[in-house]
């Protein structure tokens, strides 16, 4: 069964750094580091900084993970009204996630007797019932379909919100983020034979969709966006310059996201 947590996709940026911080947070790792530090400082340098505690390392790791998750959106420098609009949309998409997880849990409850029967048979030297794998495959397929339907609906809701509320400069910044993140300008598949013909609005819609999937399709995004305090309450600061659409040499034609634009 697929028990989803928001609609998040794996992220690549800072993964090694997060992993390093997480590994250091293990008590054994901290103890080893403490012992090593004690050997180095014993009888020589009594003023060395103490080894960070497990709690502080875990806090730092979580803070880094939070930053990595929503930074693409926060770098757009949203105004208070834009944040309020986004929070309203995130509240709806979070409800979709909760509903999908509840449906998965309900389906799992119905399958529990079959699962326990198959478990007992297998661990007592027997074989799994003939129809067990077929039931599990059907449940997996239904779960995946529910998840995808909710994901598409959530993406469309958030894309509409950002497309309606962001300034041209902020949309340019989102496109610049997409170029940096994917290593080139992404365009709809139908324009790959002639990339320069791709309308700016469609290119930026792809960029916004990618930004949403990276930063906002996660249960934690709502709480993190609630914490954000905009530097300006009335207008968004000028965003970084967008990439040159006329530079065909740097154009990278790619297919659009699987989910349709609203």
Can you give a write-up of this model?
With 262 residues, this protein is mainly α. The chain has a domain at 73-250. Helices cover 62% and strands 0% of the residues. It is built from eight helices and no strands. Helix 4 packs antiparallel against helix 8. It is extended and about 65 Å long. The relative contact order is 0.16. Mean pLDDT is 78; it is low at 1-5, 8-42, 233-240 and 245-262.
Summarize the helices and strands and which ones pair or pack.
Blueprint: H1 15-24, H2 27-41, H3 54-74, H4 80-123, H5 132-165, H6 168-182, H7 200-215, H8 220-227
> How many separate helices?
8
- What composes the largest sheet? none
**Helical fraction:** 55-70%
Q: Note the gap between the termini.
A: 29 Å
**What is the average per-residue confidence, as pLDDT, rounded to a whole number?**
78
Uncertain runs are 1-5, 8-42, 233-240, 245-262
Order of SSEs, N→C?
HHHHHHHH
Beta-strand residue percentage: under 5%
Using the CA coordinates, give the radius of gyration.
24 Å
- Number of β-strand runs: 0
> What class, by secondary structure content?
mainly alpha
Shape: extended
């Amino acid at each position: 069964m697929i028990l989803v947590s928001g609609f998040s996709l794996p992220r690549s940026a800072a993964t090694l750094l997060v992993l390093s911080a997480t590994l250091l947070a293990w008590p054994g790792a901290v103890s080893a580091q403490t012992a090593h530090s004690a050997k180095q400082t014993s009888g020589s340098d009594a003023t060395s900084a103490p080894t960070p505690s497990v709690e502080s390392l875990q806090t730092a790791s979580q803070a880094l993970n939070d930053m990595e998750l929503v930074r693409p959106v926060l770098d757009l420098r949203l105004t208070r009204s834009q944040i309020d609009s986004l929070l309203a949309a995130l509240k709806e998409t979070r409800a979709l996630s909760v509903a999908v997880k509840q449906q998965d849990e309900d389906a799992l409850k119905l399958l529990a007797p079959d699962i326990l029967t198959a478990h007992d048979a297998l661990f007592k030297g027997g074989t799994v019932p003939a129809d067990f794998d077929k039931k599990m495959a059907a449940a997996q397929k239904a779960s995946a379909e529910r998840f995808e339907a909710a994901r598409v609906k959530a993406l469309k809701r958030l894309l509409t919100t950002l497309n309606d509320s962001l300034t041209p400069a902020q949309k340019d910044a989102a496109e610049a983020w997409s170029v940096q993140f994917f290593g080139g300008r992404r365009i709809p598949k139908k324009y790959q034979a002639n990339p320069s013909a791709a309308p700016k609005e469609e290119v930026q819609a792809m960029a916004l969709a990618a930004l949403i999937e990276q930063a906002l399709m996660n249960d934690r995004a709502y709480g993190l966006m609630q914490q954000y305090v905009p530097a300006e309450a009335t207008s968004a600061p000028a965003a970084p310059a967008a990439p040159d659409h006329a530079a065909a040499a740097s154009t990278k034609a790619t297919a659009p996201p699987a989910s349709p634009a609203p």
